Design the sequence.
């Protein structure tokens, strides 16, 4: 009787473990993460959407951020962005990046998603994450910059698909 | 044949045997009863009359019954185990699917104000994204125009 109970408990535990999804996707490891967390500029306007509202765009997550930054803050944000840009997903070059006057005017690229594949299952993540950035100067004195930062996440996304989806709705 | 009969019942069975009206099954039962450890001497005498063959058959029946009962229990335990596993797996999968359905977020933070109206939040998000992609496409148009490239 004891052996039966122990065996059942072990088998049930094993099943519960196997039913879990152990794939970890490390978007939290982005260099621009502090910007999203309001650590560079405190006053930000942000939106977070997941689920059915954005399914029509083939997205699973959409996180947008709009903020006004001074020159120092703009430089800091740009520095972080360029670190992510350098580490971007280089297996599939989907990039739209423009520099004007020595600074990034806009940038859209697919970031490298580090998926940890853990025991007992091996699951390859189909999730793609794109980081979109724009910096436009405002006519103020001292000069300020309107920065928009967007994180788009979804399965089987492509840059062309995103361009198609978001050009159409405007 | 796990439980012994009480003494009165055994004595009645012995009387029946001596009258010669017992069935073969009753004789095996009687053989089983008279071979128990606390059997009085007169019962052992009946055992001698029954003969070794009947005593052996009684012992064999007892052993077979014990094995059958054990086998039934093993099967029941096996089914119970399988049922438990199915129930637990089902609960686990159900909980997992519920977690996916609950993964729905729609919120905006604007000038310290929290907005949860889906229409407004979605409009703000779309505006932000479209702004960037429109800038990108306008920039492409500018470059094409600069180099006289037809779109």
Sequence:
């Amino acid at each position: 009787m004891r052996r039966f109970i122990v065996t059942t408990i072990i088998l049930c535990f094993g099943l519960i473990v196997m039913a879990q999804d152990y794939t970890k996707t490390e978007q939290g490891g982005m260099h621009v993460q502090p910007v999203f967390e309001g650590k560079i500029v405190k006053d930000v306007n942000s939106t977070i959407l997941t689920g059915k509202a954005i399914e029509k765009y083939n997205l699973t997550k959409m996180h947008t951020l709009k903020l006004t930054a001074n020159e120092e803050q703009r430089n800091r944000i740009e520095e972080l962005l360029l670190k992510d840009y350098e580490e971007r997903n280089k297996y599939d070059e989907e990039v739209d990046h423009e520099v004007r006057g020595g600074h990034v005017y806009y940038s859209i690229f697919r970031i490298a998603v580090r998926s940890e594949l853990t025991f007992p299952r091996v699951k390859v993540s189909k999730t793609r994450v794109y980081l979109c950035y724009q910096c436009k100067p405002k006519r103020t004195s001292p000069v300020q910059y309107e920065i928009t930062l967007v994180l788009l996440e979804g399965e089987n996304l492509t840059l062309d698909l995103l361009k198609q989806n978001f050009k159409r709705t405007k | 044949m796990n439980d012994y009969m009480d003494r009165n019942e055994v004595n009645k069975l012995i009387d029946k045997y001596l009258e010669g009206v017992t069935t073969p099954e009753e004789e095996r039962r009687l053989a089983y009863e008279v071979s128990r450890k606390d059997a009085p001497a007169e019962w052992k005498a009946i055992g001698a009359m029954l003969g070794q063959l009947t005593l052996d058959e009684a012992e064999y029946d007892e052993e077979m019954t014990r094995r059958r009962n054990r086998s039934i229990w093993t099967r029941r335990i096996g089914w119970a185990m399988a049922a438990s596993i199915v129930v637990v797996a089902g609960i686990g999968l159900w909980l997992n699917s519920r977690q996916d359905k609950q993964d729905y977020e729609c919120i905006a933070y604007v000038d310290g104000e929290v907005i949860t109206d889906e229409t407004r939040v979605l409009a703000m998000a779309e505006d932000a994204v479209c702004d960037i992609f429109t800038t990108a496409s306008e920039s492409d148009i500018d470059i094409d125009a600069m180099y006289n490239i037809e779109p």
